[in-house]
Specification:
It is a single chain. This protein is mostly helical and 326 residues long. 74% of the residues lie in helices and 0% in strands. It has a single domain, classed as CHAD domain (Alpha solenoid). Helix 1 runs antiparallel to helix 2.
Length: 326
Amino acid sequence: MTGMAQASQPSSAGKWITGLSPGTTVADAARLVLAARLCAVDVSALLAAEAVTDPEAVHQLRVATRRARAALAVFADYVPRKATRRARKTLRKLRRAAGAVRDLDVLFAAINELSSRGAASDPAGGSFLSGYLFARQSAEREQLARTLRRVLDGKSLDRLLKVTTRVRGGDEVALASRATAALDEILTRFTVALDDTAADDRLHQVRIVGKELRYALELFVDCYDVSVRDEVYCAVEKLQDILGDANDARQAMRLIEGLKDELTATRPDLDRQFGRHFKALAAALNKRLAEQRKKLDRWQKQWPGLRAAERLRQPLPAAASDEGGE
């Protein structure tokens, strides 16, 4: 296990990274950002290994891997491809293992909440579904534990943290310049995805690119007027909340549909016994999804007024005072 992981979670593991400004060189920014984001993965992996049944520990591990992946993408031109490829591979292993557990944690909570509200009034059906989810949770948690043991006991995290020593170039480039190029490219893809949100798979794409935009903004926000953090970033964060709730509802519906199909094929007696319960839950989840779509419609009407593309092409001067972000 890495020595760095023995420390408590650093403040840099959160949204903002101190010490950045428009005039910071890309080389210095890359080292600072990658050190913070990869250290957060190191710490989160150890904490999750010690508490694999704690939903919050698993959630923080997944978020840490996503932020680290975003940082690698932003500074990919300044890190050797081999080092980047290895780092992404380690992050992908951790993210997928944590994601499988986290998804079930969220589904369990959502279905239990619906049941407690009377969305489905069959206690036997609720007990059956809870038992099914508990068994799947146990299996996925064991898989996560095995993945964490392999990563922590091997050299993967050591190599991950050494990525910061492999930064090359960027000594003559200001972070403000990199911000405009990186954010413009992500925002273009975000706009394309946002233009077609009718189908569920397109909503998923908006969610994915929206996360990319959010995590990149966290790295570049100090290159802009404070209003970008207060308005543009907060709007993207709100969108993620809406699409996250919609995704949770869709995933829960798919799980219920999959289980119902399995019972129909293998245990029709159980399907007949619990089918009404599953149908009631599916209806409640459909209602929740419709509510999130309405919220998304309202969000989309407000988004153009923020003029995000225009504002993100106008960073503060590179000669601005190096105050960093909080």
